[in-house]
Amino acid sequence: MRLISYQSETGPRIAAAREGTYIDLNRADASLPTNMKAFLALGKDGLSRAAAALAKGTPLDKGSLKLLAPVPDPEKVICIGLNYADHAAESGSEIPSQPVVFSKFVTAVRAHGDAIILPKLSTKVDYEAELVVVIGLGGRHIPKEQALAHVFGYTCGHDVSARDWQKGSPGGQWLLGKSFDSFAPFGPELVTADEVGNPGGLDICLRLNGQTMQNSNTKQLIFPVEHLVSFVSGIFTLKPGDVIFTGTPPGVGAARKPPVWLKAGDTVEIEIEKIGLLKNPVVAE
User: 217 and 98, same structural domain?
Assistant: First the structure.
């Protein structure tokens, strides 16, 4: 199943894809929630009820929908650094012995089609294509062999990064360099885990103004999805709707000679096999 969140007159609502259209699930079955986090918390029961609602619902006007991020208000935006072997090599970094974890604030979240805003306080804004994991079943100390059962699905993500803050500031301001408003677009659709299958074999690419800049496969992940879910759950409780940006492949702007930084007027597309395409324009603050 492929799900979206969209903005209605009464607030965010959720819908599912059916033959090129979208069906508002709550309108087809009033017992289903309108909020994505509440829907994710229903687990398998929610999916079975959603399938029935999807079959009988009336299509929305797709052309008039204002998309939101699939989870517009995640409690946690968890990010993993240096998680592709080929990206670690291009950056001259050692392969980490455990996941490098940081976070973004929810004010960085944006949707497909929303603008990435280049902040006045940075001159070195970089792009990073990422597979994003969306947690369905929460938990703490999740065993690695059970971790994928806690994943509801996947979507495309863009870990926008101000390198002059991340690496050029005293101490390396990872949180600040990654958390400017609009620096965490993800979407457009949340694709359920059963439809994606193995998350460790997906082609992933990023195009900047139509030119391919990143092109790899998630088999290059140093720490696969199940390892990440298990690892972070040992430190904090995961909850339905939490998202994990799993790291970026090689080809980032900072590693190029000369470096390539995002500029106003650019368009960035991130495409992941079986999941979809996330597209965002770039504007100046």
Answer: yes
